[in-house]
Each structure stands twice: as structure tokens, then as C-alpha cells.
From TrEMBL:
Any one GO cellular component localisation term in the record: GATOR1 complex
Name by which UniProt lists this protein: GATOR complex protein DEPDC5
Any single Pfam family the record assigns to this protein: IML1
MF GO annotations: GTPase activator activity
Species of origin: Geodia barretti
Stored InterPro entries: IML1, IML1_N
Vacuolar membrane-associated protein Iml1 N-terminal domain sequence ranges: 25-89
Record-level GO BP terms: cellular response to amino acid starvation; negative regulation of TORC1 signaling; positive regulation of autophagy
Length: 90
């Protein structure tokens, strides 16, 4: 997705979190029971983290995967979770 090759120089710069804060994150899970309190705990643990599409996450032995990331009405490949980010579980 990023067309990066190995052993090349890259430029890394710090950006303001508000610029890359996602509007919506869709997390998928299979064959697992998850309560509202689990959802709240997972959401709180994700605050301030950067996620990418297809990323596998584990929280308290619950396995999740990022499915869709939305920013300003478009799907994106990566972004940060902020207080304003909505998290959808499917």
C-alpha cells in the first residue's frame, strides 16, 4: 500500500494528531463474545495509537482486526485514534 522497498532511506516527521485523527474505525472479531464493558476498555486502550488497515490487535485475549478506517468520508490505510474517533465493532 505504501510502495516501500527495503534498505532505502525514508523521511519521518512528526505530525499533529488532529491532522491524522480518524473519524471512524471498524473492528471485526470472529467467534468471540464481547460485552459493552469490553468494548469500552478496548476503545480506551486504543486512544492515541496509530492503526493501519488489516492490523491484528489483541486485548485481554480478545483478537480483533481493523477492517475499515475512515477519515473525512473516505477510507484510508492508516491513522490515529483520538477522543473524537468512533469505534464500530462487527
Amino acid at each position: 500500500a505504501f510502495t516501500l522497498t527495503g534498505l532505502r532511506e525514508v523521511l519521518v516527521r512528526r505530525v499533529d494528531q488532529r491532522v491524522v485523527a480518524l473519524d471512524l474505525v471498524e473492528l471485526s472479531l470472529k467467534d468471540q463474545y464481547i460485552t459493552r464493558s469490553d468494548m469500552w476498555r478496548i476503545t480506551c486502550s486504543l486512544l492515541g495509537r496509530c492503526l493501519y488497515s488489516g492490523q491484528h490487535l489483541e486485548h485481554c485475549s480478545m483478537r480483533l482486526q481493523t477492517h475499515c478506517l475512515w477519515y473525512q468520508g473516505d477510507t484510508v490505510t492508516s491513522g490515529a485514534i483520538a477522543n473524537t474517533t468512533r469505534v464500530r465493532y462487527s
